[in-house]
Amino acid sequence: MIIVLSKDAMAIQKEQDVVPFRNRVKEYAVKIGMSLVNQTKLITAASELVRNMLKYGGGGSTLIEVISKGRENGIRLTFADKGPGIKDIPLAMQDGYSTGKSLGLGLPGAKRLVSEFDIKSTPGKGTTVTVIKWKNG
Amino acid sequence: MGKFLLVTIQVDLYDRLALNLETDLANMVNKTGARGVLIDISALSIVDSFMGRILGNIGTMSKIMDAESVVVGMQPAVAITLVELGLELKGVSTALNVEKGMQLLHTKVGSFEDEEKEEDADDNSIE
Amino acid sequence: MSVNTSKLLQKERKKILELWMKNQLADDSLRDDLMTNEELRVQSDELLTALTKSVNDKNLSNHQSSDFDQVFEILSGISITRARQGYSPRETGAYIFSLKDALLEVLQDEITDPTELFRVSMGISRLLDSFGVTTFETFIKGREEVILRQTDEITEISTPVIQLWDGILGLPIIGTLDSSRTQVVMENLLQRIVETGSSIAILDISGVPAVDSLVAQHLIKTINATRLMGAECIISGIRPEIAQTVVHLGIDLSNIVTKATLASALKYAFSITNLEVRKTVKTKTTF
In which residue ranges of chain A is pLDDT below 50? Predict the structure, then answer.
């Protein structure tokens, strides 16, 4: 069972919001004592997902939560946009697939960097990505 | 001849700034006729796919302008994350620190310029 | 006639403690090698005092009550220390259950009304049972912590990074490489590369029992990360059977420098760092 210990919401509208958001994520990761490597992985994943949200969803809202499950603590990030959504999620999760001009590592790369990854999307309505990084995961 | 550009990235950049760096650097290489570009990223706490792409672009770009480029000072946590992300930065030369990067540039640019081995490093820090 | 359990227990605290101590000392499971009788008395007194202070007729039937928080806290502390000291679960259990015996004995002496005796005894009995459960829970938790710490230690010890030469690091890998271990190996290696300013790392896999595609993938990841840092990575200790499986599995190691032995890897490392090992000719020296 997952218990939420603290919650912090942040809206992402423009590129300049990205760095403050990353710093906020880092603050929480440091607070729960996450190792430097895991912090870096989490922040990199967050950076990829926020960029996706800006680029394809036209911005949206993020939620940073400190969670606890049994003896493990972790950070859960939620990225929700009201963009066009993703039609074919398995395709979007493939390495090297991109509708833009990027390397196509955003979604699959972010998934490899976190402990748990969940994506829900309704075409025309928007996309919500939730990731969890456990302190020792 | 034999000029090297030293770029120290001191803060985490958002995408637009990183793109500016790419453009500025291309112009600088052209203007100064530098033979080598050294990019110090030791202050970067993360390198994501976008920043990785910029680093790769700078490498390729310098190459076709006849300059060598070396990325130095990547943090261990950043390197581990990049590998996990699936980004190998193929075609980008790396070195442990500025000193070692300079050595590498000297060997790459070639020994025939040995006589004028002055390190005319231009500090082009981005704030 | 209703009995005031709280008052009764507080009044008889001394007597209960004596009885409890007597029970504990008489028990076969007493570990006077791990704790002196005096320490045991202090520990028991603390727990009993906390218990007699918090218990009353209202919460006797409700052991979830927050009144007992302090008791549970002391109890958890005791169980965890015992787990670390090496007490067996039976010995730890005997500690709390001998208190139950002492309490019930005193209640029997003090309460004359059978219905009241039954009510209070049942309550105390249930309460002590829940204490027993907590004792076991925390005892096991304490043990788990010991195991976790040891696991960490083993991973730590099993991946030593040694400096072979100025600028050359060696990393003998013993045992199977799984993803969590690769993580530790990578972190240690990269950290040491930065600390020592080394430009070459030799990964010796003589002690790895088998290389399958997953292990190879982990090795390649480590090598790529080393390269990103600006250091070169050499793999040594490739046994014939490993070479064979690598080929059969179609793993591409062509971009990686591989050597059969650690010695030849070191020789190669010397040559690319422009170092030379020479035999010196001994001449007579006079002092």
Answer: none
Q: Chains A, B: CB contacts under 8 A, how many? A: 71
Q: What is the secondary structure of A49-101 as a DSSP string?
A: HHHHHHHHHS-EEEEEEEEEETTEEEEEEEEEE-SS--S-HHHHTSTT--SSS
CB atoms B94 and C197 under 8 Å: no
Q: Which residues of A touch B78 (CB under 8 A)?
A: 40
* pLDDT at B74 > cutoff 60: yes
Nearest to A43 among B46, B76, B84 (CB): B46
- At the fourth CATH level, the homologous superfamily of domain C5-153 is Globins (1.10.490.10)
Name the residue among A37, A48, A112 with its Cβ closest to that of B48. A48
The pair phi, psi for residue C21, each rounded to 5°, is -60, -40
- Superfamily for the C162-272 domain: STAS domain (3.30.750.24)
Q: Is the pLDDT of residue C32 over 80?
A: no
Q: How far apart are CA C4 and CA B126, in angstroms?
A: 77
Q: What is the mean pLDDT of residues B80-87?
A: 91
Average pLDDT over residues C205-230: 88
SS3 content of chain B, % helix, strand, coil (to 5): 50, 15, 35
Q: Does A24 touch chain B (CB under 8 A)?
A: no
User: Domain boundaries in chain B?
Assistant: 4-123
ipTM of the complex: 0.85
What does the pLDDT read at residue B127? 45
Fold observed for domain A3-134: Heat Shock Protein 90 (3.30.565)
DSSP C175: S
Chain B residue whose CA is closest to C191 = B76
Mutate to test the interface with B, among A40, A51, A94 (most CBs of B within 10 A): A40
pLDDT confidence of residue C116 = 85
> Beta strand pairing status for C162-165 and B122-123?
unpaired
Domain spanning B4-123: CATH superfamily: STAS domain (3.30.750.24)
Please answer yes or no on whether A37 and B76 come within 8 Å at the CB atom.
yes
